[in-house]
Specification:
The protein is an alpha+beta fold and 133 residues long. The protein has two domains: 36 residues; 71 residues, no CATH class. 48% of the residues lie in helices and 14% in strands. Strands 1-3-2 form a three-stranded antiparallel beta sheet. The longest helix has 33 residues. The protein is elongated.
Length: 133
Protein backbone atom coordinates (compact mmCIF):
# COMPACT_ATOMS: atom_id res chain seq x y z
CA UNK A 1 0.00 0.00 0.00
CA UNK A 2 1.23 3.46 -0.78
CA UNK A 3 0.80 6.42 1.43
CA UNK A 4 -0.48 9.72 0.19
CA UNK A 5 2.34 11.91 -1.16
CA UNK A 6 4.78 9.04 -1.66
CA UNK A 7 6.28 8.71 -5.15
CA UNK A 8 7.71 5.67 -6.86
CA UNK A 9 10.80 7.71 -7.71
CA UNK A 10 12.52 8.88 -4.54
CA UNK A 11 12.97 12.56 -5.49
CA UNK A 12 12.70 13.92 -1.97
CA UNK A 13 15.68 12.01 -0.58
CA UNK A 14 18.22 14.19 -2.36
CA UNK A 15 18.36 17.99 -2.09
CA UNK A 16 18.98 18.34 -5.84
CA UNK A 17 15.81 16.38 -6.63
CA UNK A 18 13.66 19.44 -6.14
CA UNK A 19 15.19 21.00 -9.28
CA UNK A 20 14.31 18.04 -11.50
CA UNK A 21 10.73 19.19 -12.29
CA UNK A 22 12.09 22.64 -13.23
CA UNK A 23 14.71 21.10 -15.51
CA UNK A 24 12.09 18.91 -17.16
CA UNK A 25 9.83 21.93 -17.68
CA UNK A 26 12.73 23.87 -19.23
CA UNK A 27 13.56 20.98 -21.58
CA UNK A 28 9.91 20.67 -22.66
CA UNK A 29 9.83 24.43 -23.32
CA UNK A 30 13.02 24.28 -25.41
CA UNK A 31 11.72 21.27 -27.34
CA UNK A 32 8.48 23.14 -28.09
CA UNK A 33 10.49 26.14 -29.33
CA UNK A 34 12.61 23.89 -31.55
CA UNK A 35 9.49 22.24 -32.96
CA UNK A 36 7.88 25.62 -33.69
CA UNK A 37 11.05 26.85 -35.41
CA UNK A 38 11.25 23.66 -37.50
CA UNK A 39 7.64 24.06 -38.62
CA UNK A 40 8.17 27.70 -39.59
CA UNK A 41 11.34 26.90 -41.54
CA UNK A 42 9.66 23.97 -43.26
CA UNK A 43 6.80 26.19 -44.39
CA UNK A 44 9.22 28.84 -45.66
CA UNK A 45 11.19 26.24 -47.61
CA UNK A 46 8.00 24.78 -49.08
CA UNK A 47 6.81 28.21 -50.26
CA UNK A 48 10.23 29.07 -51.65
CA UNK A 49 10.36 25.76 -53.53
CA UNK A 50 6.85 26.27 -54.90
CA UNK A 51 7.88 29.70 -56.20
CA UNK A 52 10.86 28.25 -58.03
CA UNK A 53 9.28 25.15 -59.48
CA UNK A 54 8.35 25.28 -63.11
CA UNK A 55 10.94 27.87 -64.11
CA UNK A 56 14.40 27.63 -65.61
CA UNK A 57 16.91 30.28 -66.64
CA UNK A 58 19.13 29.44 -69.58
CA UNK A 59 22.44 31.23 -70.01
CA UNK A 60 23.51 31.70 -73.64
CA UNK A 61 27.22 32.51 -73.86
CA UNK A 62 28.42 35.01 -76.45
CA UNK A 63 30.75 33.57 -79.09
CA UNK A 64 34.34 34.80 -78.96
CA UNK A 65 34.88 37.90 -81.08
CA UNK A 66 31.48 37.85 -82.85
CA UNK A 67 29.09 40.54 -81.57
CA UNK A 68 26.14 39.50 -83.75
CA UNK A 69 26.58 35.84 -82.95
CA UNK A 70 24.89 36.16 -79.56
CA UNK A 71 21.59 37.24 -81.09
CA UNK A 72 21.78 34.36 -83.54
CA UNK A 73 22.44 31.88 -80.71
CA UNK A 74 19.55 33.26 -78.65
CA UNK A 75 17.19 32.89 -81.62
CA UNK A 76 18.33 29.30 -82.08
CA UNK A 77 17.67 28.55 -78.39
CA UNK A 78 14.23 30.19 -78.56
CA UNK A 79 13.46 28.17 -81.71
CA UNK A 80 14.34 24.91 -79.98
CA UNK A 81 12.33 25.84 -76.89
CA UNK A 82 9.26 26.89 -78.87
CA UNK A 83 9.15 23.44 -80.46
CA UNK A 84 9.06 21.70 -77.08
CA UNK A 85 5.72 20.63 -75.62
CA UNK A 86 6.99 21.04 -72.04
CA UNK A 87 7.72 24.76 -72.49
CA UNK A 88 4.84 27.14 -71.82
CA UNK A 89 6.72 30.41 -72.34
CA UNK A 90 10.29 31.41 -73.21
CA UNK A 91 11.50 34.99 -73.38
CA UNK A 92 14.84 36.74 -73.45
CA UNK A 93 15.54 38.90 -70.42
CA UNK A 94 16.83 42.42 -71.12
CA UNK A 95 20.58 42.99 -70.95
CA UNK A 96 19.94 45.43 -68.07
CA UNK A 97 18.84 42.48 -65.89
CA UNK A 98 22.14 40.67 -66.46
CA UNK A 99 24.01 43.92 -65.79
CA UNK A 100 22.13 44.41 -62.50
CA UNK A 101 23.11 40.88 -61.46
CA UNK A 102 26.86 41.56 -61.71
CA UNK A 103 26.89 45.19 -60.49
CA UNK A 104 27.07 44.27 -56.77
CA UNK A 105 30.42 42.58 -57.40
CA UNK A 106 31.91 44.80 -60.09
CA UNK A 107 30.27 48.15 -59.38
CA UNK A 108 28.68 50.54 -61.81
CA UNK A 109 30.62 51.97 -64.69
CA UNK A 110 32.21 51.30 -68.02
CA UNK A 111 33.71 47.98 -66.93
CA UNK A 112 30.30 46.33 -66.71
CA UNK A 113 29.26 47.75 -70.09
CA UNK A 114 32.38 46.30 -71.74
CA UNK A 115 31.98 42.78 -70.38
CA UNK A 116 30.70 40.09 -72.76
CA UNK A 117 27.73 39.15 -70.58
CA UNK A 118 25.65 36.13 -71.54
CA UNK A 119 22.06 36.47 -72.64
CA UNK A 120 19.49 35.12 -70.19
CA UNK A 121 16.39 33.23 -71.34
CA UNK A 122 13.57 32.80 -68.83
CA UNK A 123 11.66 29.58 -69.43
CA UNK A 124 8.33 28.61 -67.82
CA UNK A 125 7.63 24.90 -67.91
CA UNK A 126 4.27 23.17 -68.05
CA UNK A 127 3.17 21.70 -64.72
CA UNK A 128 3.88 18.00 -64.33
CA UNK A 129 0.78 15.91 -63.54
CA UNK A 130 0.88 14.49 -60.04
CA UNK A 131 0.19 10.94 -61.22
CA UNK A 132 3.50 10.80 -63.10
CA UNK A 133 6.49 9.32 -61.23
Amino acid sequence: MSRRGQFDIPLRRDATGRFLPWMIALMVYLAALALAAALVLSDLARRWDAGLSGSVTIQVSPPAGDKGGLDRRVQQVLGVLSGSAEVVDAKTLPKEDATRLVEPWLGQGALVAELPLPALVDVRLAPVPTWMP
